[in-house]
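[job 4471] stage=fold_predict status=RUNNING
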Amino acid sequence: MKMIHIILHLFVLLLSYTITSQSHTTSSVNDFCVANLSFPNTPLGYPCKSPLHVTVNDFVFSEFVAGNTKNPFNVGLTTASVNNLPGLNGLGISASRIDIGINGSVPMHFHPDATELFIIVQGRITAGFITPKKVYVKTLIPGDVIVFPKGLVHFQVNSGTGKAIAFAALTSSNPSMDVIDEVLFGNNLSTFMIEKTTLLDPSQIEELKAQFGL
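[job 4471] inference complete, writing structure tokens
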């Protein structure tokens, strides 16, 4: 019986400590953690800038304009991430503007660490994502929104007669983007290995390597 009393007493002490600790943690949580970009980024984000040095400009990005479309895909991308909008640090969100010229496209790519909400504001865009079993694709017009689940390969093609514009929100303050063409042809993976694993013609592979890096 005495042992039960001791256990109960220890349990009450532990519970009391936990409640006090949680109360202290909650009361000391910062409203925000503006990124200190003078330090390297880490898996947990940037360290916080001292509140004494935080200004409203840490929460404003003023260059959310059309990106350069002079590239093989005729697409421009402007991203507001923690790297140029420090106030996003730790908030798990970022945004992009996508400008697709006539006959342009956003190549097949995926975000290993973010789901994407894609919002059409101008033109017509045929967009979709791919699973091992099915392709989900639809032609979108201004006012339409499509979601691309995290990690799935997706794409957008300008299917209208003029320039197309869209905005995207992503569930990461610093999302990564892996473009399939760059993964295959922008490194030192040999032509032989690409041929054997994709059945592409070697001459096509060499041409794409020249275009995307090597």
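[job 4471] summary: The mean pLDDT is 88.
[job 4471] exit 0
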